[in-house]
Design brief:
Layout: H1 2-50, E1 62-70, H2 82-92, E2 96-99, E3 107-110, E4 116-118, E5 121-124, E6 127-128, E7 132-135, E8 140-143, H3 148-157, E9 161-164, E10 180-185, H4 186-190, H5 196-205, H6 210-215, H7 222-232, E11 238-245, E12 250-255, E13 261-264, E14 270-274, H8 280-283, E15 292-297, H9 301-307, E16 309-314, H10 319-328, E17 331-334, E18 345-349, E19 355-358, E20 362-363, E21 370-385, E22 388-392, E23 397-402, E24 409-419, E25 422-429, E26 432-434
Parallel strand pairs: 1-2, 1-11, 2-5, 9-10, 10-11, 20-26
Antiparallel strand pairs: 1-16, 3-8, 4-5, 6-7, 7-9, 12-13, 12-15, 13-14, 16-17, 17-25, 18-19, 18-21, 21-22, 21-23, 21-24, 24-25, 24-26
Zinc ion (ZN) is lined by residues 69, 71, 100, 128, 244.
């Protein structure tokens, strides 16, 4: 008996030791990041921000920052409310949110949920189902049991927007009714990486450095960009960024009307409902505006809205003007947690140095002498022609001008910032189409 007890004791100690060791291994990168890596990233980004110089405005349109492909409580996998969305947008300087809530059945009635201005932030309701992002921009009924292509045709012919969501998936890419595609989707980018190390990292760094924790998922989306370029060689297809934000990789609790506690986990699933236990008071705080008394958050709207942002050049902050300019491709995307790209411009000029078109526009070849770009932050401009890099600037340029003989086809700009000892992708513009 004593031998059995002794063996059990050693086994238990061994197991506890192993768990301790595993925890130390899992938490070590986060602790290292907390004291070394992330403070240095933060310092570099702050130093870079000091080099900001507003370029003189050449383009006669305003630039609005917005997030597209965002989910609220109307989706089965989110609990987001206006009290979550709006403060996040305000903190991040976001002017508009184009929601894409999953429909619940075959009949999708838009507008649903939120729309219009809320504390200065413009919200437009939209829908996402099976690789399809749509914003009808006016009241509409979508019957999802119809053929996808005919749904797209109907929304577009009534003045709405239909873009491909999740460009890593199969689509009917040749359907001209789809006006755009995601050239970056945060959810897509996370698919090739285990979330476990990120989870431990967020437990250590979820306070001050959550944005750096989530940046660990970032990879340049080279195959998707190449596919976008190849599609643009045959027809115009606008590139936009999707944060695909749900604020749902979290553990939360709130009181139910009957006094019990509801626990909500990943993807907004109800985990359990239980009586209040004595230890609850140790971990619960006063309810926030949505009623949560406990929140352990991995993804937040605020981190997402700053992670990747669409910059739309538009005459006004209205649904109709934004929609028109999005479809036109008057849009570039930027990884905003590295630096705000407001003020960035890309345009073509003629021999008299007058602007003959901007990003997203088509310009007749005899109306084009120079392609020009300017940036508020210094970095490296890369000019991509029909999918091939044909020119790069120095690594610390604010201005870019390309005046070598210009050919037909598409020209777009990628800009990278000098950070962490390397050039990191920051801005992707829509192309200028030369014909
Ligand atoms: Zn989505």
């Amino acid at each position: 008996m004593t031998i059995v007890k002794r063996i059990l004791k050693y086994l238990l100690l061994g197991l506890l030791g192993l768990i301790g060791l595993l925890l130390i291994i899992q938490f070590t990168p986060g602790i290292w990041h907390h004291w070394v890596t992330y403070p240095s990233y933060e310092k570099e980004v702050n130093e870079l921000a000091k080099l900001r110089k507003e370029p003189s405005a050449q383009i006669n349109l305003n630039t609005y920052r917005g997030v597209m492909h965002v989910h609220s409580y109307l989706s089965h996998d989110s609990r987001g409310t206006l009290d979550d969305l709006i403060p996040a947008a305000k903190t991040d300087g976001i002017d508009f949110i184009f929601l894409t809530d999953h429909p619940h059945g075959d009949i999708d009635t838009l507008p649903k949920g939120f729309r219009g201005f809320h504390d200065g932030v413009l919200i437009e309701p939209g829908t996402e189902k099976q690789g399809f992002c749509a914003w009808p921009l006016h009241p509409a009924i979508i019957k999802w049991n119809a053929n996808r292509d005919s749904i797209a045709k109907k929304i577009v012919s009534n003045g709405g927007i239909v873009f491909y969501a999740h460009s890593e998936e199969e689509h009917n890419w040749i359907n001209p009714d789809f006006q755009g595609m995601e050239i970056y989707n945060f959810h897509t980018d996370t698919k090739d990486q285990s979330p476990v190390p990120i989870l431990f990292d967020v437990l250590v760094n979820g306070g001050a450095y959550r944005h750096w924790v989530l940046r660990q998922f970032f990879d340049p989306q080279t195959p998707i960009l190449a596919h976008w370029d190849s599609l643009n060689n045959t027809r115009k297809i606008v590139g936009f960024s999707a944060i695909d934000a749900h604020e749902n990789q979290n553990l939360r609790a709130r009181y139910l009307p009957d006094g019990r506690i509801q626990w909500v986990g990943n993807n907004a699933h109800n985990l359990d409902t239980m009586e209040v236990k004595f230890w609850n008071k140790w971990i619960f705080s006063a309810p926030d505006k949505s009623g949560w008394v406990f929140k352990l958050l991995v993804d937040t709207y605020q981190t997402g809205f700053n992670y990747v942002t669409n910059y739309v050049m538009s005459d006004s902050l209205t649904t109709s003007s934004l929609g028109k300019n999005m479809k036109q491709g008057h849009l570039f995307i930027a990884f905003k947690s590295l630096g705000d790209a407001k003020g960035f411009q890309f345009y073509g000029t003629n021999s008299k140095d007058s602007i003959t078109g901007i990003l997203g526009d088509s310009i007749k070849i005899d109306q084009l002498k120079n392609l020009k770009a300017s940036s508020p932050l210094p970095g490296q401009f890369t000019l991509v022609h029909n999918g091939k890099t044909i020119n790069t600037s120095t690594a610390n340029a604010y201005q870019f001008s390309f005046s070598e003989p210009i050919e037909k086809g598409t020209y777009r700009i990628e800009m990278s910032l000098n950070l962490q000892g390397k050039l990191i992708p920051w801005v992707y513009t829509n192309p200028i189409y030369i014909y």
